[in-house]
Design a protein that fits this description.
Number of helices: 14
Number of strands: 16
Order of helices and strands: HEEEHHEHEHEHEEEHEHEEHHHHEHEEEH
Largest sheet: 7 strands, mixed
Strand content: 15-25%
Structural class: alpha/beta
Shape: globular
Mean pLDDT: 95
Strand order of the largest sheet: 4-12-11-10-7-5-6
Helix content: 40-55%
């Protein structure tokens, strides 16, 4: 069998299981998001509404952000020109790190090209800094956290999702003198449930462990200044390392950690994922800094975002659709079959101009396939009406069960 044949078999397996992923060619139009233009496979165009984007607050088109990016690109050009160590650190990068440190009430912040890289690079580097480190990782942590823990070569323990009793059992079973770190998330993006931050911090204090929290799906959207769920719960001071993204609520690109000056300096000095990567373009850093600064003073956007999520969940529940509702902004509608999920997604796009990507294995466990909606302040009443009516009609057309709330 040839190499090409092996690749054909691998791709065909995904088709057979109904979980082959298709890229939808869309063009966002500045000023009109969540509306976009879909270029169909035949080359024709169709106006659509995006319901699965991570630009949660519409900041990717905000004039404050785009103006900052234009100013930076006019001043500096396109790229950064190097790694952070070799000519790739600019005033824009330093300003952004200062904004992020201030946001989280930490001494310092360290910028990466994505939150994935920030998680992977940091978690894989920590055992170099703390020999014998044991990392306790929530079972549903993001793939970037799992990869970082897997690659670090140190000891790891996986505790059942949000199960602090199981975490305690694992901590009690290990050497009391071993350095420890607990890694978890504030909001788990597939179900939209919250991590037990205070309970984990209590365990960390009791067992002398560091805490590492991923706030990727919370920064910009929770807390008085948008620093995340830990800020909302007044717990930021109890967390040693906070990971966040600039590519979701902030509408731009990049990831970061916020921590003590010593922690950021050590990661900066030892993490290959930081050392050997070309830094973000200055225009990206400028736009992200403008977005972070703006959202610190825009609680009304956060409240509007939560109102939209509550309204959509209420209306879908009223139709008897099986949604998961843990009180966050994420709205998963459970389908439970990869073929049906893809079919619903295709019909929403082709027949109703509504774009929501199917979520299937390995992102979620088999049998829990879903459509995951992310309402935003820029989705208006007309867009929500269209979505609710389309879901009602398609659910009936596909003869899918209407059930009580899934969670």
């Amino acid at each position: 069998m040839t190499y090409s044949d092996q690749l054909d078999l691998a791709i065909q397996r995904l088709h057979d299981e109904g979980r082959y992923r298709t890229f939808i060619d869309i063009e966002r139009r500045n000023g009109s998001f969540p509306h976009a233009v879909w270029t169909k496979p035949d080359g024709t165009e169709k106006d659509i509404t995006v319901w699965c984007g991570n630009d949660y607050l519409g900041m990717g088109q905000h004039p404050v952000v785009t103006a900052a990016m234009k100013e930076a690109i006019d001043s500096t050009g396109a790229g950064s020109g190097g790694t952070r160590n070799i000519s790739g650190t600019t005033v824009y990068h330093k300003r952004l790190e200062a904004e992020l440190a201030d946001l989280h009430g930490k001494e310092a912040a360290l910028l990466f090209t994505s939150a994935y890289i920030a998680n992977d690079a940091t978690l894989s580097t920590l055992p170099k800094l703390f020999p014998g480190l044991i990392i306790y990782s929530d079972a549903l942590n993001h793939a970037s956290m799992i990869e970082g823990v897997r690659r670090n070569g140190g000891a790891k323990r996986v505790f059942r999702h949000n199960d602090v009793d199981h975490l305690r059992e694992l901590l009690e079973a290990d050497d009391t003198d071993a350095p420890k770190l607990i890694a978890f998330e504030s909001i788990y993006s597939m179900d939209g449930d919250f991590g037990p931050i205070e309970a984990i911090c209590d365990l960390a204090d009791e067992f002398g462990a560091l805490t590492y929290i991923d706030e990727v799906h919370a920064v910009g959207m929770y807390g008085p200044r948008g620093a995340g769920v830990a800020e909302q719960e007044r717990l930021m001071h109890r967390l040693d390392i906070i990971n966040g993204t600039l590519a979701k609520a902030y509408g731009v690109m990049g990831g970061y950690i916020a921590a003590s000056e010593n922690m950021c300096d050590a990661i900066r000095s030892y993490a290959p994922g930081f050392i050997f990567t070309t830094s973000l373009p200055p225009a990206i850093a400028a736009g992200a800094a403008a977005s972070v600064a703006y959202l610190k003073r825009a609680p009304e956007l956060r409240e509007r975002h939560q109102q939209q999520a509550r309204a959509l969940k209420l209306r879908l529940k009223g139709l008897g659709l099986p949604i998961i509702d843990h009180g966050s902004h994420i709205v998963p509608v459970m389908v439970g079959n990869p073929v049906h999920t893809k079919m619903l997604s295709d019909m929403l796009l082709a027949d109703h101009g509504i774009y929501v990507q199917p979520i299937n294995f390995p992102t979620v466990p088999r049998g829990t396939e879903r459509l995951r909606f992310t309402p935003s302040p820029v989705h208006g009443p007309h867009e929500m009406d269209a979505l609710v009516h389309a879901m009602d009609g398609l659910w009936a057309h596909c003869a899918l069960n209407r059930a009580e709330q899934a969670g």
